Amino acid sequence: MGNECPICDKHRGIGALVGPVIYADDLVLVTHRPLTEGTPVPGYLFVETRRHAPTLSTLTDAEAQAVGWAARRAAHALHVELAPEFVFSAITGLSVAHFHQHVFARPHGTPASVPWTNADAWPDAPHLDACALGELCDRLAIHFVTEH
Ligand SMILES: [Zn+2]
């Protein structure tokens, strides 16, 4: 695929979606939501296939295994490092037709009125600057290379 896919571009280091890489192998990448979307709430991760596969049903068995492993590791890493109220995960694919799974923390103290899909709707939510984002990603990355 060429330049028309923003996630393929992201994997080549191009475009507004480029975020810090927490884990990468031949099949999947795990990244944190980037600063290009403002100061992100801590712990909003994306698990993406390296290959341009548009949907969950188009993954190979090997890709699906890699995605499942990475999503589980991502959720575990978020639980350990952030101790959030919840870790949510969703696969929607409405905006970009390149497989990506959202794995994200709901910060402690999030009011019940804030939708699970949108922590940004909470004005008092914690946010990360560039330094804190880098430090968090370094801590999260450790959980992908150690035994659990
Ligand atoms: Zn793509």
TrEMBL record:
<feature type="domain" description="HIT">
    <location>
        <begin position="21"/>
        <end position="107"/>
    </location>
</feature>
<dbReference type="InterPro" id="IPR036265">
    <property type="entry name" value="HIT-like_sf"/>
</dbReference>
<dbReference type="InterPro" id="IPR011146">
    <property type="entry name" value="HIT-like"/>
</dbReference>
<protein>
    <submittedName>
        <fullName>HIT domain-containing protein</fullName>
    </submittedName>
</protein>
<dbReference type="Pfam" id="PF01230">
    <property type="entry name" value="HIT"/>
</dbReference>
